[in-house]
Structure prediction request, 181 residues.
Amino acid sequence: MPEDWAEGGSPPGVRTIGDPLLREAAPSVPGIDLGVRQVLDTLTHSLRALGGAGLAAPQLGIPSALAVVEVRRTELFPHRPESGSICLVNPRVADQSGPDEEDWEGCFSVPGLVGRVRRPGRISVEHLSLDGGTVVSPFEGYLARVVQHEIDHLEGVLYLDRVTDTRTLSTLGHYRRTLAH
Ligand code: NI
Prediction:
């Protein structure tokens, strides 16, 4: 977890709120090619360096419908369930079902803050697999939350737009000291 992000700064190379690219829908890619694989590699390496759970291409200034998700436990989020590495190419939520779940979210593009967001607890996502076929993948719980957060990025939506109650917004400092559980 980069301290500059926790303190309200932005990690190097990550676009932050106010950048118009974060508010645009990212165009789909025509298929899986070397360029797409390279962007996915870059996203995966950046995500691991940042210690985050997900990262979308527009956050690195790349206007393509590509994102990666890899949930690892961190000092800040020591209890979340871990996942394997998931590449999302042209992802689209095809189905969602409840019950809705509410939990904390943060974002490297919104430095220094966390807030409570309510989202469907189960989703099915249609996307391209790395061999180029269209597949539908089910996600639930915390992983479904992270996947929805990243798909939102590809549609120009930030978690702040979905915060259940803006009075839950908190600095990471307050979250660490009093709210983390
Ligand atoms: Ni984000």
